[in-house]
Amino acid sequence: MNNSDQNYVKWFRNAAPYINAHRGKTVVLMFGGEAVTHPNFANIIHDISLLRSLGVKLVVVHGARPQIEDRMQQRGLEDNVVNNIRVTDAQTLVAVKDATGSLRLHIEALLSTGLVNSPMHGSQIRVSTGNFVIAKPMGVRNGVDYKYTGSVRRIDSDGINMQLDYGSIVLLSPIGYSPTGEVFNLALEDVATQTAIALKADKLIALTEDEGLIDKSGELIRSCSVRTVKTLLDENDCHVRQLLLRSIIQSGENGVERCHCVSYQSDSALLQELFTRDGAGTLIAKDHKELIATATIDDVAGILELIQPLEEEGVLVKRSRELLEMEIGCFTVLKKEDVIIACAALYPYPEAETGEVACVVIDPDYRKGNRGERIISALELNAKSKGLTSLFLLTTVSGHWFREQGFIEMPLDKLPEGKKQMYNFQRNSKVFMKDI
């Protein structure tokens, strides 16, 4: 087996946990009309097909802003935009129907491709469209009648779930229908957000022009909370970016656990984001009422109270208050209403580009949730920010749990020199390591 074959096998094995994690999950994927005209869109279609074949329940929501503008220019219609919202009169509505209808058919046709020499061969993807979006008129605002511009009233979640259970990809256009038989022009972001919320989707994925969310210094944000996204909102942002940010915020605040932003210009970003550890864009996690933060001197008493039972059992090495006060900056805590319910420490070994995970403790009353996973993830982010490439830990009783978090048992000689010299042979702790 040559190196390229070995690399492929290694990648496939590393991707397996993510493949299993996404099977059966409901994902809403949104992209604008700009993505459809990009040369990479054929690859996105293939990836959508692949996701469905891996058992992901997919709702695809497309936009059509540039296509609508083209149709309006062809008809000699002026673009009437007030407060960044298009006023859709009867003539504009004809252009909207033409653009969205043509685009939807185009996407359906691409998803139906099954040529022998194409990645879609044998996929037999079923695409379902319909009147799943019930809309209402935006009405008159500040004296402006927006006519056939509307907003989502409700999503037919039962109808969509029925199609998803049949194995179909549900394709939604930025169009809605009223109970009185009218058609309304909707914003892509409104349709995608309300659909994700109504379906209680596991993920909302936005394909954007940028790599992901960009901070105010121009750097890519790899991962953040919904709370952080709120800080990115700026009056000087373009309207489309504001719509995207508000979509993420609203989804995260209404039950969608994860949002992702990846570039539609990259032929690997979508799969890399979902099936690799480091991803390719931005992962936004729903805010929890329980706050993860770096410990301060005020947290010493709470940490001591949390770890004392395990110290008495001999599971943890005893720490004095004085030592804990000196090392408090190494600790991360998880708080619920200002009470510490979990903690963990990270001790960097920068010369070896690694760090020790220690003192991972969760209050017995809170061990049924994913709090352990969350605090380990916080340590991993902290370690990456310090330039570390791996983590290690010593444990006598918790090896199985750490294996579940991706740590692998290693021989003692894999420890960095500084830690190897301090190893306590009487405790006979096992060594676990993880690349990050």
What does this protein structure show overall?
With 436 residues, this protein is of the alpha/beta class. 38% of the residues lie in helices and 25% in strands. The protein is elongated. The relative contact order is 0.08. The mean pLDDT is 89.
Task: Provide the fold topology.
Blueprint: H1 3-22, E1 26-31, H2 33-37, H3 41-53, E2 57-62, H4 65-74, E3 81-82, E4 85-86, H5 90-111, E5 127-128, E6 133-137, E7 140-141, E8 144-145, E9 150-155, H6 157-165, E10 169-172, E11 175-177, E12 183-185, H7 188-198, E13 203-208, E14 223-225, H8 226-232, H9 239-253, E15 258-263, H10 269-275, E16 282-285, E17 291-294, H11 300-313, H12 321-327, E18 331-336, E19 339-349, E20 354-362, H13 371-385, E21 390-395, H14 399-404, E22 408-410, H15 417-420, E23 430-435
Parallel strand pairs: 1-2, 1-13, 2-10, 5-10, 13-15, 14-16, 20-21
Antiparallel strand pairs: 3-4, 6-9, 7-8, 11-12, 15-16, 17-18, 18-19, 19-20, 21-23, 22-23
Structural class assignment: alpha/beta
Could you estimate the helical fraction of the residues in percent?
Answer: 25-40%
Main sheet overview:
8 strands, mixed
Strand order of the largest sheet: 5-10-2-1-13-15-16-14
Overall structural domain count: 2
Average pLDDT, rounded to a whole number, is 89
